[in-house]
Structures are given as C-alpha cells and as structure tokens.
Amino acid sequence: MDFKDMQPETVLAQAGGAIDLQSGGVVPPIQPATTYARDEDYKLLNENNLYSRPHNDVVRQAEGVLAQLEGGSEALLFPSGMAAIAALFRTVPTGGRVVVQSGIYWGTTKWIREFCARRQIEIAEVDASDAAALQAACAVGPAHLVWVETPSNPWLKVVDIAAAKAAAASCGALLAVDSTAASPLLSKPLEFGADVVMHSTTKVINGHSDVLGGVLVTKDVTPVWEEIANDRASAGAVMGPFEAWLLLRGMRTLSVRVDRMAENALKVARFLEDHPKVDAVLFPGLESHAHYALAQTQMPGGAGFLMSFLVKGDKATALQVAGKLKLFHRATSLGGVESLVEHRHTIESHTGIPETLLRISVGIESAEDLIADLGQALGQ
Ligand SMILES: Cc1ncc(COP(=O)(O)O)c(C=O)c1O
Fold first, then answer.
1. What integer pLDDT is reported at residue 2 of this predicted model?
2. What percent of the chain has pLDDT over 70?
3. Which atom of ligand 1 is nearest the CA belonging to 108?
4. Which CATH number goes with the domain that contains 245?
5. I need a labelling partner for 198 at 20 to 30 A (CA). Which of 99, 148, 153, 267 fits?
6. Last residue of a domain, one of 200, 234, 251
7. Ligand 1 centre from 43 Cα, in Å?
C-alpha cells in the first residue's frame, strides 16, 4: 500500500516513512552532516545531497508529510513561522501591492508593515472575514498577494477561503492562508482554492512547545514558488535536522492531539459561555459565533483549540483571573499539549484588543480539570 493512498492519521502515525534499512530502526535517523562526500570520479555518493543548507533527508521527510497532509505539491520548512511568512512576502516586488487581513497575529502585521514600508509596497488592511470588504479591497487595483489568517488570532474570525480566492483572482493576486490555528487536520485551505498555505509549526504541528518552525505548502509549483525555494537555499533560512526530526516525532501524535484538544476546547467554550462572569466567548465552534456555519463547512472536524473570552469587569479583573489559574500556564503561544492563557492587551495594547480579553490555548489535559481551574479562577 502506498502512503499516498492513506488516511492522514496513518501518514502521521508513521511520519518519516519506512524502516531505516541501515539500522532497522522504526524511526528515521538524523543526519547532522553539513556536507556530503563524492567518490573517486567526483560523483556525489548520494545525488540528492551536496551540502546541508539545501539538502537534508529528515527535513525533506518532514516536508513530504506536510505537503501530503495539505494536499499540496511541495512544502518548504523554515526555522520559524515568521521566516516562512517573510519568504513569501519577499517575492512581492518593490512598489507592489498586497491585501492583508486586519486583526491577525500581531507579529505578522508588525513585520508586514515594516517590510512593506521599506519596499514601498502598498498594503490594504481589511477585515477579510467580511467577504464583501475583501472583494472591495481587491477591486481597488492589481495586487500580488492576498494574506489571510483563519481562524484569526486572537479574534477567532473565520475567513471564507473560496470567497477570498475569488477576490484574490479578481486582482491577479495569489491567495495565501495562515492556517496555524486550524492545523492541517481541521482545515484544508488548498482544497478551498488557496494557492499557498502557511503554518507556524511551532504550534500544534509540533505540539510540545519545544521546536520553533514554519512551513509553506504550495498547490502548484509556480515561478513564485521556485523563487521562494531558490531564495531559501541561497539565503539560508533553513530548518536544522534536529528540529525537523523533533517535528516529525511531534507529528506522529498530531491526529490524537488535535482530536482531544478540539473536543476539550468545545467543552471549555460551552462552560465559559454559560459563566456569569464572562461577557463573551470568541470560538467558532459555538453556535452563537457569527461564523459558526462557515466554520462547520470549512472545519468539519472541529473548530480547533484556540479561543478568547472577555471577562466581566476591567483590565485588573482579567489579570486577576489569569493570575489565579493553576493549570493554564501564563505564557504566549498556542497549540501545545499544555493549556496556556494570555492577556493579549499586555502585548499589543495599541491595536484595540480589549483589556478584558484572555486568550486560551486548550491542551490535552482532562477537560473536567481545565473547567474546574477556570471555574475557581473566575469565581463560581
Ligand atoms: C497565527 C500565527 N502565525 C504565525 C506565527 C509566527 O510563528 P513563529 O512564532 O513560529 O515565528 C504565530 C506565532 O504566534 C501565530 O500565532
């Protein structure tokens, strides 16, 4: 049976593929060499490997798994999610135009704004979860790239990817989707028309809060894709073999982690929604969420593990709730097996994030324990 015909759960459980014939090991080996030898006739001993900046087996194995999961033709790993985003934006020519979703991960917005200012690239920032607004922003003129993040972090808005593709196509732009908060199991942006999908693999794909990484997966091998691949090989923003190996190991349990996290998250969201000390819960898996119907179509396996909620009271109340949590670690990031809580206003006070908003990433602990922890912190 060919790996190509298998379900994602099987591909993931055996991520990295066949038995290592040299050792008999059931996990792939790590090759740390930076350079590869040639024979007496100056032929490479292994024609796939010349120098480790562009060539490493375990990096390629991890990329193969990610490309297959997303239904893409190729994947490229980078040393962080931001490096993957930067690699894509660097293909936009000086003086070009991009349409970027507003209210997304602040680190992305900040870097894109700075980069575009340096390159005289015009940015239209728009709430892309409003399909008409996105279409209108695209109608202003030709663009090179439309960038959306769904579900968005920390507002948990869901973007209609098929509508975004139509808008991007109308202005001649590529559509790229940051699908980090969805995971490759809960959403398949390429199937809905995206040209490129991106993940910070630092998050749920690795899942253990111990590897920084990012990936781009392309539907087709286009000139833009080749430019990204060449630039990575020459400019050197590569993932190291140890990180790629850890990523493969993390991916072996991705499907069970995502199932458990999504199940826990829905229980936690329902608990918070009914809690008298909570003003609102932002989670697209709740029927009350404005994008619930869209999330059901685009993310049929669950709405993920990330959510935000607004605590009744003020900034001090929200910080007190965060301070009283015992199981949720007070730390930035998301997608790990351990649950995290973050007061985003502390990080990005000027972006309009409410002072009472707490973002949580729900892990694989017992939902009952997580709910009890939130209950005691909020005050029953
Ligand atoms: C949605 C999203 N995209 C991209 C990134 C950037 O990824 P990294 O921290 O791996 O560079 C993050 C980081 O939090 C994120 O949440």
1. 67
2. 99
3. 4
4. 3.40.640.10
5. 267
6. 251
7. 41
| 132-161 average pLDDT score | 98
DSSP code of 34? S
pTM over cut 0.90: yes
Residue 313 has pLDDT above 80, yes or no: yes
Predicted pLDDT of residue 31: 97
The mean pLDDT value of the chain amounts to 97
Instruction: Give the residue numbers spanning the domain of 196.
Output: 3-251
**Residues 261-300: tens digit of each pLDDT:** 999 999 999 999 999 999 999 999 999 999 999 999 999 9
**180 ligand 1 Cβ < 6 A:** yes
- Ligand 1 pocket check for 336: Cβ under 6 Å: no
How many whole angstroms from 215 Cα to the centroid of ligand 1? 11
DSSP letters for 320-347? HHHHH-SSSEE-S---SSS-EEE-HHHH
Number of domains in the chain: 2
Q: Residue 153, by phi and psi: left (phi above 0), alpha (psi -120 to 50) or beta?
A: beta
Q: Tell me, yes or no, whether 232 and 159 share the same domain.
A: yes
pLDDT at position 5 is: 79
Q: Which residues are catalytic?
A: 53, 105, 178, 203
Ligand 1 centre to CA of 82 (Å) is: 6
Distance CA 122, CA 144 (A): 10
Our answer on whether the CB atom of 108 is closer than 6 Å to any ligand 1 atom is: yes
Q: Give the chain's end-to-end CA distance (angstroms, integer).
A: 54
